[in-house]
Amino acid sequence: MKNIFFHIDVNSAFLSWTAIRLLAEGETVDIRTIPAAIGGDMSKRRGVILAKSIPAKTFGVTTGEPITDALKKCPTLRIIQPAHTYYHECSRRMLNLLETYSPDIRPYSIDECFMTYVPFKNGGETPEAAANHIREHIRNELGFTVNIGISTNKLLAKMASDFKKPDLVHTLFPEEIPQKMWPLPVRDLFMVGRSSARTLELLGIKTIGDLAHTEPSILTSHLKTHGQTIWEYANGLEYTPIDTRRHIARGIGNSTTLSSDVTETASARKVLLSLAESVSRRLRDAGQCAGMVNVEIKYSDFSAISHQMQLLTPSQNGNTLYQYACRLFDEAWNGQPVRLLGIRTSKLSDADAVQMNLFDTAENAKLQKLDKALDDIRKKYGRDAVVRGSFLKNK
Hints:
Radius of gyration: 24 Å
Structural class: alpha+beta
Low-confidence stretches: 355-362
Helix content: 40-55%
Number of helices: 14
Order of helices and strands: EHEEHHEHEEHEHEHHHHEHEEHEEHH
């Protein structure tokens, strides 16, 4: 029997996850039911739309457009700033749930993943029944909805999940391609971007079916090897598979614009501690250690400076990153009011391959055990289950 793949895609992920958080905090209106969007800083009317509600979509609000343009279309649009750390937690909770159904879960982005179907009793005897069971489980337990696409390869499963939304299951098996996929506009095909779509339309290729029936040599003459790839995709072939391997980032970091300018070292250090813990957690999630730490300072007059330092031993520990960050801050800060602080790590290496210095092996082992214990507690009981005492007054 061939493998059956699911593609699970969260519906309006950032908006849905934000709605759940706001409702838990006492909000009486579900922002998914009103014209609302996730975007940049509303008070400064800058940034772009990252996600929008269905009511906002009816006003013509689109993902990626400037907030100022969206507000012209819908003056009553409610805009909420993104909370990326929280979004990563929501994504992790979904992956943990899915792992109870299959040993083969492959994240593709923060709000979508692939999963190999494994039959199970009481609702999972067939792929469609299992997908609907999982869809309902996510909605009932986690509070948000997903679309699930089903097929014999990842490409077609991903295409299927993009069909009618939200909260639905769709199949796109090879025999269903002529009916379900070929009539769609060519720009809807995975890996066909705006530039490729314009080129194809100039060639008279308007639908995915048109592309599937075009001589591949014509496509390669205009689009090089990409033409061959999208011809294969239009025919449901996955000779160039979707890459679901973990990509090693060149750097991992975090920064924050402060609600009021910082003028004291003690206040700056609290911010740096919070940033160091956030970056540390992301390094551990990625299985990486940092060999370089960089601190960025932006002043109230918008001038900026950054300063970096190489670590003696690559690390993913928050205390280590914090100590280096404080040293860098002390060396770089000129005493002016600080508007933004950031920590970025680079020269990343696989955590399992890092060789510890003879003198810090024991200490690092203790820190790694502590980090793992804290991560386990936070995953089970929430990010705020364990916090530093120095943060309690601020919270």
